[in-house]
Automatic annotation (TrEMBL):
<dbReference type="GO" id="GO:0005524">
    <property type="term" value="F:ATP binding"/>
</dbReference>
<comment type="subunit">
    <text>Homodimer.</text>
</comment>
<comment type="similarity">
    <text>In the N-terminal section; belongs to the tetrahydrofolate dehydrogenase/cyclohydrolase family.</text>
</comment>
<dbReference type="InterPro" id="IPR000559">
    <property type="entry name" value="Formate_THF_ligase"/>
</dbReference>
<dbReference type="InterPro" id="IPR027417">
    <property type="entry name" value="P-loop_NTPase"/>
</dbReference>
<keyword id="KW-0554">One-carbon metabolism</keyword>
<comment type="similarity">
    <text>In the C-terminal section; belongs to the formate--tetrahydrofolate ligase family.</text>
</comment>
<dbReference type="GO" id="GO:0004329">
    <property type="term" value="F:formate-tetrahydrofolate ligase activity"/>
</dbReference>
<keyword id="KW-0067">ATP-binding</keyword>
<comment type="pathway">
    <text>One-carbon metabolism; tetrahydrofolate interconversion.</text>
</comment>
<protein>
    <recommendedName>
        <fullName>formate--tetrahydrofolate ligase</fullName>
        <ecNumber>6.3.4.3</ecNumber>
    </recommendedName>
</protein>
<dbReference type="InterPro" id="IPR020628">
    <property type="entry name" value="Formate_THF_ligase_CS"/>
</dbReference>
<keyword id="KW-0436">Ligase</keyword>
<dbReference type="GO" id="GO:0035999">
    <property type="term" value="P:tetrahydrofolate interconversion"/>
</dbReference>
<dbReference type="Pfam" id="PF01268">
    <property type="entry name" value="FTHFS"/>
</dbReference>
<dbReference type="GO" id="GO:0046394">
    <property type="term" value="P:carboxylic acid biosynthetic process"/>
</dbReference>
<keyword id="KW-0547">Nucleotide-binding</keyword>
Length: 729
């Protein structure tokens, strides 16, 4: 089918029947397609949408639908009307095709146009998933070569993702680290405020527009939010990780490995308690140390247990009856077993004895370990319960720690992916920030910092508000890694600020009240002067400069955006800028990237919030008062008893990981803004000894969240013919 190209000025009312017009126009970050065509055209780039219209001069637009990306590179010519300084990468256009820049004259029915023969009319709606599918990722081996990885350092999982071996750290050990940037946020609405999209948009801007080596480090999303209410965590629009469905679902199986390892520990506990209850010391010993071909010997993990018991013998025949009893009897107290079974998706009815997989201590260990050996040692130190004599029982006492390391040996390697614009991304670990420490892995950050080099940037993201994810990033992750951030990018939205300024409740799945879609400077100012101001102050407690990123939505007015930026700077932010990465990709965050670069060039005075040698209760009180704004804390009798026990066992110098609602600075989800005058209730205190922190449970916080009445999985489906997924967002 040939293309009939007509260039010039023509009366629209005289168009012959079946002709059509293709116009690419820069309009608030969008590419606008007007007309009808017989082919599907493909545009690969950083724009919000491709909108396909049937244009009639007399009756305005008949259709307002999103046009899917297909094959723009088949076009013989592309006309760009009124594009200003819009940049069109040469790779978008077929070699030899004409690119025509012009300003249209649409008055009195006059237009510059291209005419195509017409066969049918395409009508589509577009989603993040369709945008992701429209861009073909570069092969992962090509991406790896571009960022400096060697072929032998890559373990491909299909065409678009791969595990990266930790040997890279040894090869690049003399390479200086790049700049380390943390993306955090204000207290969010239940809808989320776009930290992942800001992270992706920022690295795309740093790479494509500032021409700097950059890397994003993100957490792997849990299936709970993906199939529940929040959706995936790949970002969105033109600032997302691709392929989006692979990112949001199984990826390379890391969370499945964590679930399997977690439940292996639970099975080992069940089995050991059963066998100890039904067998004599002699029978237990004969089965735990069997004779094989007439030879009886201890396994290495059993020798480690003997040594912890103070028994310096390696010959099973030399043990006394008392030593055999001590060796074979863990004597776990059923009322003091602390290990929970793990499941990948939220489950409310079986809360007792269950944790969502991302709350598992094994997930925290994966995120905090700095080598395979470190992970193995941390797994061995995990405390699963207490004996009847009051002694902690570890995974190594169960004899299961070596098997756990085997299950986790591939999971410890970060997964390499890319953004829509081809910027590299490490996806690794996925602890929640409200019930765990809420950050991607130390290893992913360390690998990325070496790969970008001294002048490069690594951007990582902390979960939920700065009071939760950022505080734990500094006090837990930075202690484990030894890394220090250069800048905090604090994400805010007009929507969330209106909520904190006194707006009505925001509920997932319900339409936003008019206060959120109409201009309301009073609500915006109230949210800025309460929650935004407090979150900036929290970042300054750690001595790190703050750049505020206003994630722009289509309902935001310029006056509202300007007000947020002005108040943010008045509250101590180094800079504050609107970001349009969702609509424009990296180009929409170029000003943010420049501000981050400038802030990172200045020295910071990083400091921890507390000394780990402080008593556990005082560390909890410090976080409650200085970060959350509480007057004081109140420990339940159980919590007080456990803090005393942890001190006795030598765990008192561990940092604190608060399990608290993410919907408020306080423990009360409905208290917005920056609440004061409250006492923070500590219901329970638990210990993740392998991960290396104490975690208090605040108020009614649960480590097994539940699904909503109508979860997202109602809309998720698979086409059995094409194998395409629908309903993910």
């Amino acid at each position: 089918m040939g293309l009939n190209l007509m260039l010039g000025l023509c009366d629209v009312s005289c168009w012959p029947h079946g002709d059509s017009i293709l116009i690419l126009q820069h309009l608030t970050g969008a590419v606008l397609l007007m007309g009808r065509c017989s082919k599907t055209f493909f545009c690969r780039g950083s724009f919000r949408s491709l909108i396909f219209h049937y244009f009639n001069y007399y009756f305005n637009f008949f259709f307002f639908n999103i046009f899917p990306f297909s094959q723009v590179m088949q076009a013989d010519a592309v006309v760009l009307l009124d594009v200003g300084n819009m940049y069109v990468p040469p790779t978008w256009i077929r070699p030899g095709a004409a690119i025509i820049y012009s300003k249209p004259a649409l008055e009195k029915g006059i237009a510059l146009y291209i005419v195509f023969p017409i066969n049918f009319l395409y009508v589509f709606s577009v989603s993040d998933l369709e945008i992701s599918r429209a861009q073909i990722p570069k092969p992962v081996d090509q991406l790896a070569e571009e960022i400096g990885l060697l072929p032998e350092e890559l373990e491909a999982y299909g065409r678009s993702k791969a595990k990266v071996r930790l040997s890279v750290l040894e090869r690049l050990q003399s390479q200086p680290n790049g700049k380390y940037i943390l993306v955090a946020g204000i207290t969010p609405t239940p809808l989320g405020e776009g930290k992942s999209t800001v992270t992706v948009g920022l690295v795309q801007a740093l790479s494509a527009h500032l021409k700097l080596n950059s890397f994003a480090c993100l957490r792997q999303p849990s299936q709970g939010p993906t199939f529940g209410v929040k959706g995936g965590a790949a970002g969105g629009g033109y600032a997302q990780v691709i392929p989006m469905e692979e990112f949001n679902l199984h990826l390379t199986g890391d969370i499945h490995a964590i679930t399997a390892a977690n439940n292996l520990v639970a099975a080992a506990i069940d089995a050991r308690m059963l066998h100890e209850a039904t067998q004599s010391d002699k029978a237990l010993f004969n089965r735990l140390v069997p004779s094989v071909n007439g030879v009886r010997k201890f396994s290495p993990i059993q020798i480690s247990r003997l040594q912890r018991l103070g028994i310096r013998k390696t010959d099973p025949a030399s043990l006394t009856p008392e030593e055999i009893n001590a060796f074979v009897r863990l004597d776990l107290d059923p009322s003091k077993i602390t290990w929970q079974r793990g499941i990948f998706i939220n489950r409310q009815i079986l809360c007792t004895g269950f944790d969502i997989a991302v709350a598992s201590e094994i997930m925290a260990i994966l995120a905090l370990a700095d080598s395979l050996e470190d992970m193995k040692n941390r797994l061995a130190r995990m405390v699963v319960g207490t004996s009847c004599s009051g002694q902690p029982i570890t995974a190594e006492d169960l004899g299961v720690s070596g098997a756990l390391a085997v299950l986790m040996k591939d999971a410890i390697k970060p997964t390499l992916m890319q953004t829509l614009e081809g910027t590299p991304v490490f996806v690794h670990a996925g602890p929640f920030a409200n019930i765990a420490h809420g950050n991607s892995s130390v290893l992913a950050d360390k690998l990325a910092l070496k790969l970008v080099g001294q002048d490069g940037f690594v951007v990582t993201e902390a979960g939920f508000g700065a009071d939760i994810g950022m505080e734990k990033f500094f006090n837990i992750k930075c202690r484990a890694s030894g890394l220090r951030p250069s800048v905090v990018v604090l994400v805010a939205t007009v929507r969330a600020l209106k909520m904190h300024g006194g707006g009505p409740n925001v509920s997932a799945g319900a339409p936003l009240p008019r206060e959120y879609t109409d201009e309301n400077l009073s609500l915006v100012a109230g949210g800025c002067c309460s929650n935004l101001k407090k979150q900036i102050q929290i970042a300054h407690l750690f001595g790190v400069p703050v750049v505020v990123a206003v994630n722009v939505f289509k309902t935001d007015t310029q006056a509202e955006i300007d007000l947020v930026c002005q108040i943010a700077k008045d509250c101590g932010a180094s800079d504050a800028l609107p970001c349009n990465h969702w609509a424009q990709g990296g180009r929409g965050s170029s000003e943010l990237a420049q501000a981050v670069k400038e802030a990172a060039s200045k020295p910071s005075d990083f400091q921890f919030l507390y000394n780990t040698e402080m008593p556990i209760v005082e560390k909890i009180r410090t976080i409650a008062q200085r970060v959350y704004g509480a007057d004081d804390i109140e420990l339940s009798p159980e919590a007080k008893s456990k803090t005393d026990y942890y001190h006795q066992q030598g765990y008192g110098s561990l940092p604190i990981c608060m399990a608290k609602t993410h919907l408020s600075l306080s423990h009360m989800p409905d208290k917005k803004g920056a609440p004061t005058g409250f006492v923070l209730p500590i219901r329970d205190v638990r210990a993740s000894i392998g991960a290396g922190f104490i975690y208090p449970l605040v108020g009614t916080m649960s480590t097994m969240p539940g699904l909503p009445t109508r979860p997202c999985f109602y809309d998720i489906d698979l086409d059995p013919v094409t194998e395409e997924i629908t309903g993910l967002f």
